[in-house]
Design brief:
This protein is α/β, with parallel strands linked by helices. The chain has helices at about 35-50, 65-70, 85-100, 115-125, 160-165, 180, 185-195, 200-210, and strands spanning about 10-15, 55-60, 75-80, 105-110, 130-135, 145-150, 170. Helix 2 links the parallel strand 2 and strand 3.
Length: about 220
């Protein structure tokens, strides 16, 4: 894919330790919550790394498996200070600005298993038209993407109702990009992501537990 649009962005992806993530999610029978949280994060990161130069991807995490999987990828690994999502994002912003002051930066949540390169590129391109932008989640209340053309002026206000808080200093973009806007933190959002089609990490995990494709439809019977 042409990276002309995405090459200017430094993308910060906070990833919570998988042993503590997705507490509201009830995984399908046979799937451990930790494994599902890890798979969701890896699908998100694979998509980001497919279109954003690796040295401009800043992953904030304390999860050793995430760090192991990203070894050799070229992504910048930032220690999660362990004080919640906003503190993790702030650590990512600090890491970006210490090496490239005033560069355009985006904060992307790490729980978007249905995200693909087309919708990520589309979201970043739309955000490029505004000095500061926020893309709400599919419910319209949370935030999946937060951007500013000056990373030092990014102010994370994540948590319940974050879209409205971010909108006080950013342009709200109600984009028709369902794969970008479907963050997974409960059973309903997981079902929605599966209908859209999840990435290979999440897909393989769900198929191994259910014997069904990741979209939840019945698999074809073996021939013969």
């Amino acid at each position: 894919m042409d990276s002309a649009i995405t090459s200017t962005w430094h993308v910060i992806v906070p990833v919570k330790h998988s042993s503590r993530g997705k507490s509201r999610l009830r995984p399908p029978e046979g799937v451990h919550r930790r494994d599902l949280a890890l798979a969701i994060a890896l699908d998100t990161l694979d998509t980001v790394l497919a279109i954003v130069p690796a040295q401009q991807v800043f992953v904030v995490t304390a999860d050793p498996e995430i760090r192991l999987q990203l070894r050799g990828s070229g992504a910048v690994l930032v220690d999660d200070p362990g004080r919640g999502l906003n503190a993790a994002v702030a650590a990512g912003i600090s890491a970006v600005t210490s090496g490239a002051p005033h560069t355009p930066a985006a904060v992307l949540l790490g729980d978007l298993p249905a995200l693909n390169t087309e919708e990520l590129a589309g979201g970043l391109a739309a955000c490029a038209a505004a000095e500061a932008a926020v893309v709400p989640d599919h419910e319209g209340t949370g935030t999946v993407l937060l951007t500013h053309h000056d990373a030092a002026r990014l102010v994370p206000r994540f948590g319940t109702g974050s879209a409205a808080r971010h909108a006080r200093s950013a342009t709200t973009l109600d984009l028709d990009l369902p794969r970008l806007r479907t963050d997974v933190d409960d059973d309903t959002s997981l079902a929605l992501a599966r209908k859209l089609g999840v990435g290979p990490w999440t897909g393989r995990l769900l198929e191994s537990s259910s014997g069904r494709p990741a979209d939840g439809s019945p698999i074809d019977s073996p021939v013969g």
